[in-house]
Amino acid sequence: xxxxxxxxxxxFHFPGGLKEYLTREMIDGKTLVTKDIFSGRVDxxxxxxxxxxxxxxxxxxxxxxxxxCNTIPTPEGGTHxxxxxxxxxxxxxxxxxxxxxKKAGQILAEDVxxxxxxxxxxxxxxxxxxxxTKNKLSTIEATRIVExxxxxxxxxxxxxxxxxxxxxxxxxxxxxxxxxxxxxEKEVSRQSATRK
Length: 196
Hints:
Layout: H1 17-26, E1 38-43, E2 50-57, E3 64-69, E4 72-73, H2 79-98, H3 109-113, E5 116-123, E6 129-130, E7 136-137, H4 140-160, H5 162-195
Parallel strand pairs: 3-5
Antiparallel strand pairs: 1-2, 2-5, 3-4, 6-7
């Protein structure tokens, strides 16, 4: 894993992939919402190489995402990150439905991602980027590839550990309620300013 700011002589080697990098370099000292990191790697058929991800949710920090396409950093995200966001949001909503949690329907992708630290790497054939700097992936098919791949794994991850899944669902609902409260406060203050 090498970025533009990495010195030329520096070499990163993480045999455990993105999960190991996330554990050793990004979440050290942070309080996690779930005890396990949601991670995986799936090799794709049909000319598209693979999808690898590692995601955890932290209680004491803002979220961040690092994504790559064919080892090229995509600091502005793109269609592959959209697929990840959709998979996590839809997976949590479905788990909420399954457990009869009526509040799960209010969860948006921003509620799931706001406190997540996520890493995503895709290898796809003939990727399309936005702009010459390749900061953002724009290959439309990447959304579907990542969403279906990650969603299936996420559904299994949630089902395998109901305690973690329930904790994560409650955490996402708290984030949704905070978002809604802030929006209402903003509307009230805007209405007050208009009246003045």
